[in-house]
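Standup, Tuesday
Yesterday: got the pipeline producing structure tokens again.
Today: sanity-check two examples.
Blockers: none.

Example 1:
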Amino acid sequence: MTDNAQILSEMNDRSREVFRRVVEGYLGTGDPVGSRTLTRTMSEKVSAATIRNVMQDLEFLGLIQAPHVSAGRIPTQAGLRMFVDGLLEAKLGDEDRDRIEATVDATESDVAAMLDRVGSALSGITQGASLVLAPKHEAPVKHIEFVSLAADRALVVLVHADGHVENRVFVPPPGQTPSSMREAANFLNSLVQGRTLSDIRALMGAEIEAHRAELDGLAADLIDKGLAAWETDGDRGDRLIVRGRANLLAEGADPEDLERIRTLFDDLERKRDITEFLQLTEEGEGVRIFIGSENKLFSLSGSSLVVSPYMNADRRIVGAVGVIGPTRLNYGRIVPIVDYTAQLVGRMLSGPNTRG
């Protein structure tokens, strides 16, 4: 049993209700919740003094705190975590479901356009900023070609079996000749049929070693360099779609809030290895919630991320959708929205009509 689960199980009904009402009140208004307010909403009639005693106990446990000199209390990050793990009641409303479904057409053939619409819809529905991590193209490869552009630049052209074509400029090993480029391309094309780029990358090292005597050293270097150009840390074919940034700025009347949001945007712009979002979600298929410093990408901005992976027809995680907002998110509404959106995108990608 985790520490939070143990604390929750040891709390009596009154302590649990006070804690839940403090959190829900804060999430609803952003204001501290005081003992007098709670006396009017508790299911049993208790005095303000009794509630203050309960709140002191909750504060000692690190679940709530008093901001500045306020007489009221707000949840701590630990308190929010315990609330979303143990007390959150999440239900998808019919109106939210309809708005999500309206953005996804079962006959859609353009995945990129669909994901753009999903991102815009998520930000509009939740009034936060949405994140959509688009899947990289993993169709089998049909043909690879290397084209010399200059002494220090070359182009690798990748043609997929479904007609999708990708191009990337990279720096080749010194001394490449037209002959070594043809040799490298011929070698790769003997391997690619029916394999994805990931499959080829896994196979390539062993094949180069086995055929090194037949391959010119330059050609072997070019093969490695050319394929590595598609696997760099900076860009692995994934695309991050961010929508609704203005929604977050609209929340920040306080200059400190505005500065935190700008920090978040800066982090997003600088974060080139966006596949981290996939890594964050791979521990489970459902929605994951990262509050404040639990996610290093948003630690400085004090934001929360609600994210869920989506899968292809092979049940492999290929992307993720999520919502960013202040820690004062309406988790009970946003969690099922993100969950349902991810399920819907997965179903669309598993259909026979979609293409990357």
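Example 2:
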Amino acid sequence: MDDSDVRRILAVMAHPDDVDFGAAGTVAGWTDRGIEVVYLMVTDGDAGGFDDGITRAEMAALRRDEQRAAAKCVGVSDVRFLGYPDGRVEATLGLRRDIARVIRQVRPDRVLMPSPERDYQRIYPSHPDHRAVGAAALDAVYPDARNPYAFPELLSEEGLEAWTAREVWISGGPAADHHVDITDRFDRKVSALRAHASQTGHMGDGLPEMLRGWLSANAASAGLPEGRLAESFQVVDTA
């Protein structure tokens, strides 16, 4: 699907910072072109961070604030949270319903999500929460959100009409087939990730270098010239 046909995009991710590690540069390009982007975080990231001096509830509140600040760096103002427990997400019918509800509310043309598959070549994106959210989000796109008889209470009690998202972009999976050059938006990606200070503050000046290593490898895989930086996705037609 060409971006000219896209009005709204929903990013469904497991934790605060997932969308920024995987796609902040791409999201910045979308919002620069006038596309509305909404974030849905399944957890509040309460199991993250390195500070034993704060409670898990305080960490969750901090990470919600960090995600809102990061979203502003790339032009996103609508950030939603489902409040599932970090580290214990499963692809349940309840999670499918909760994601389908937001799909029907937002009515996106494209949904960005983590991969439901494990990548044995690069294990870090394959956190079990990521895979569970990817599986539930893909099921929420097809068949749940588009089927008026799936979770009928969404229509009968909440008035949410069925909606078909026409395309899915999968981040962090083993079968990337689409690359987005984000070289000119790299600084905004770094700014978004620095907003997650509880997760990235310890990296200091090493954060941009680490990102350049990942993104340069993506660009090389895409055949882009040396020095370019790219984010990678698998694009699935779900129309």
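Quick observation on example 2: The chain has a mean pLDDT of 96. The beta strands are 8-13, 36-43, 78-84, 110-114, 167-171, 178-181, 230-237.
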